[in-house]
Write a structure and sequence with these properties.
Helix 1 (36-50) packs across helix 8 and helix 1 packs antiparallel against helix 9 (317-325). A hairpin with an 8-residue loop joins strand 19 and strand 20. 49% of the residues are buried. The chain has helices spanning 36-50, 61-69, 157-165, 190-199, 214-222, 238-242, 274-277, 301-310, 317-325, 355-361; strands at 3-5, 12-14, 26-31, 53-58, 77-78, 90-93, 99-102, 109-110, 113-116, 132-147, 154-156, 182-184, 209-210, 233-237, 248-250, 252-254, 284-294, 297-298, 336-337, 346-347, 388-390, 393-395. The protein is built from ten helices and 22 strands. The protein has 397 residues and is of the alpha+beta class. The strands form six sheets. Strands 3, 4, 6, 7, 9, 10, 12, 13, 14, 15, 17 and 18 form a twelve-stranded mixed sheet that branches. A two-stranded antiparallel sheet has the order 1-2. The chain is globular. It has three domains: 3-137 and 285-337, 3-Layer(aba) Sandwich (D-Maltodextrin-Binding Protein, domain 2), CATH 3.40.190.10; 139-283, 3-Layer(aba) Sandwich (D-Maltodextrin-Binding Protein, domain 2), CATH 3.40.190.10; 350-395, no CATH class.
Length: 397
């Protein structure tokens, strides 16, 4: 196995591309720190179906956009962090979903896929390009979260604006009046961009301390001392909340024009994302995968292998399972859609429905009332609207 010195100079890391270790075909991907939990689920599936090993480097959503849209060749590279840097090294995915740090080599490598939690139009300086293809992944919600010891239950857009836009506003945002206890990200992240649009605060003008990655934010907010729990608040993606094992609690969010707050889910203890799926909870959007194209075809064979596995009109059960196990919502379980971050909602009828399967597949999940199991289309002939047998349930086509 090929090895090289790490950026810290103290340990040896394998090469990301290593034919001797079976990594002779690699997909280079970079973007949000929210993506690794999903990649751990997708990686084995991609490897099994295409023979390509995904290699991912955490940067940010807007950097994922930049690596594909930029006209500058140097911007389209993934590179090893310099010595002493806090930047994340690249990691490759193993067959069991582990993420192993690796080295990219001198000069770096060209990015195949730029991943982002937000639309490219949300990233400053991005110019639309006919040479870039955009592919959509599952739906992810962004949340306001507090330590598990906190007694706080709900936050309104007005209160969130007083917290993150005005630093507590001279006690008006009680109990959240100490910006040192605001756990935030930065303007290049999809989390802060989306939350900022929801509450009317520019993403580059948030009060609080940038905690780096989503994983770091979750870890630091989890260990806030109990006597400060009510004063601490953070922003995070729902997949990292699901991984916190009860050490973090999401706040219900009351958007402008709403008379009460909504969790992403129908109750705080479930993970059915019903309020995301029908639009009552507004802070959500699809994952985006960008790549260079010629006509409508990805230039990179590695990129083509990626998008034809993870962004397809009729997803395989294995792909649905990967999305669901990562805490995200397959688009086929959605009832609303939007074309810009926090833009207007419109009704959505997916090409293939999977709402019944989605809820049944959740941990402790149960299919909603009216969802009839099936194995063939004949099992669904007695159902209203003559639904089809899709992923083990009678679903409207």
């Amino acid at each position: 196995m090929t090895t090289s010195v790490s950026d810290a100079g103290t340990t040896s890391r394998p090469s990301c591309l290593d034919p001797e270790a079976g990594r002779d075909k690699v997909i280079y991907v970079t973007g949000s720190s929210n993506f690794p939990p999903l990649l751990a689920k997708l990686g084995p599936l991609i490897m099994q179906q295409t023979g390509y090993t995904p290699v991912y480097q955490i940067t940010s959503s807007c950097n994922g956009v930049k690596t594909v849209f930029s006209a500058q060749a140097r911007d389209r590279l993934m590179v090893d962090p310099p010595p002493g840097s806090r930047a994340s090294p690249a990691t490759y995915v193993t067959a069991d979903g582990s993420l192993i740090p690796c080295t990219l080599g001198p000069g770096g490598v060209a990015v195949d896929i730029g991943e982002s939690d937000i639309f490219s139009s949300s990233c400053a300086g991005t110019v639309p390009s006919s040479d870039v293809g955009e592919y959509f992944g599952p739906i992810q919600a962004m949340l306001f979260v507090v330590p598990g010891y906190s007694t706080q239950k709900v936050i309104s857009a007005e209160m969130a604006r007083a917290v993150f836009g005005r630093g507590g506003d001279n006690q008006k945002a009680t109990p959240w009046i100490d910006p040192d206890l605001y756990f935030i990200r930065n303007a290049n992240t999809g989390t802060q961009q989306m939350i900022g649009r929801a509450i009317g605060v520019p993403a580059d003008q948030f009060w609080g301390r940038d905690r780096g990655t989503a994983a770091n934010l979750a870890a630091e907010l989890t260990v806030v001392a109990s006597e400060h729990a009510d004063q601490a608040i953070g922003i995070i993606s729902n997949d990292y909340l699901d991984r916190s094992m009860g050490n973090l609690t999401e706040l219900a969010y009351q958007a402008p024009g709403q008379t009460c707050g909504f969790w992403p889910d129908s109750t705080q203890s479930l993970r059915d994302k019903r309020n995301v799926r029908d639009g009552h909870y507004p802070i959500w959007g699809p994952l985006h995968f960008f790549t260079r194209i010629a006509g409508a075809i990805p230039i990179s064979q590695a990129a083509a292998a990626f998008v034809t596995t993870v962004s397809v009109p009729e997803p395989r059960v294995e792909l649905l399972d990967a999305y669901i196990e990562a805490g995200l919502v397959p688009s086929c379980a959605m009832h609303v859609q939007r074309s810009t971050d926090l833009g207007a909602l419109s009704a959505y009828q997916p090409p293939i429905n999977c709402g019944c399967y989605f809820e049944a597949k959740l941990a402790n999940g149960v299919a909603p009332a009216g969802c009839k199991p099936c194995t063939t289309a004949n099992d669904c002939t007695d159902q209203p609207g003559r639904p089809e047998c899709r992923v083990f349930f009678c679903e409207a086509s």
